[in-house]
Amino acid sequence: MDMIYVKNLSKSYGPTKALDNISFTVKHGEVLGFLGPNGAGKTTTMSILTCLFPPTDGTATVAGYDIYKEPIEVNRSIGYVPESFTLYPDMRVKEYLRFVAEIKGIERKKIVESIAKVISDTDIADVYTKGIKKLSRGYLQRVGVAQALLGEPPVLIFDEPTIGLDPIQIIAIRDLIKSLSGERTVILASHILSEVSQVTNRVIVIKEGKLVAVDTPKNLMKSMDSSGRIIVTVDGDESKVNKVIKKVGGVKSVKKIDESISGTTYHVDVAQGKDIKGELSKAIIEGGFDLVELRLEEVTLEDIFIKLVTKEKED
Ligand SMILES: Nc1ncnc2c1ncn2[C@@H]1O[C@H](COP(=O)(O)OP(=O)(O)OP(=O)(O)O)[C@@H](O)[C@H]1O
Ligand SMILES: [Mg+2]
Q: Does residue 216 sit in helix, strand or coil?
């Protein structure tokens, strides 16, 4: 069964189309990365799924419940970690978690045990008796995660959960999300592809409210491989080397980027789909130059993300 089913969702704020006909599904036990730059529509989508407000158009179900007809059941099925967590500043963490446990309808005799579990999962024992408004940003974020986990909801939605966390906590949250996969269904909204790719094997990329890609991080990488750049370091007269490289079929441009005692380094941009490493090294060696290094520039996940969300420039 699709635990999350989204069909043709649109949301307009006056003239702004925050979401434009988005459809996707998430299977039971899957962790889905939901990626997009600032303003892409991530929080809008999460807000609709948690029934904070209805879409302008389209439908969605969560755990089989309809967002229009069964908002209470939808909410019961979701643990939501909002982007910024500001509720109930005057409560202490322990009062707040107890309050949430009661709202979520956790059995009385199980409340203490349930709270102890989420405190340990999110490592907040140190601030358990503190007032919420006195918490640091990172601890506040962790309390946000703790309340979402209470009651073991089948679906968890994290909206940028690692913003404001220190590196050790980022790893802890990542491990926590990983440990949820298989059992729970998770959406992780983020603008950091490398972070998402560590916990998910499927990502959706949205841009200006529209879906631009649905794939594995691996396949997204592959799709970029064809338009390569070669980094080559050669010891020899620069203008002559330049000429030799430019003569190789498939080379679009050559640019010097660095100079060291071992030689001069160039970026060689190559036409789409051409593998010219062999020909290039042959041409350099046959030209009588010393080939110090030649390699394909590694495509990073960040490169892919930027390429997907920025308009293609003609060159
Ligand atoms: N209450 C609102 N009124 C008017 N426009 C809004 C409102 N909320 C969001 N928007 C607009 O909708 C679009 C999508 O916003 P949304 O918050 O969903 O983006 P996001 O992907 O979560 O971005 P971020 O990475 O910055 O959190 C933006 O253009 C935003 O300005
Ligand atoms: Mg957002």
A: coil
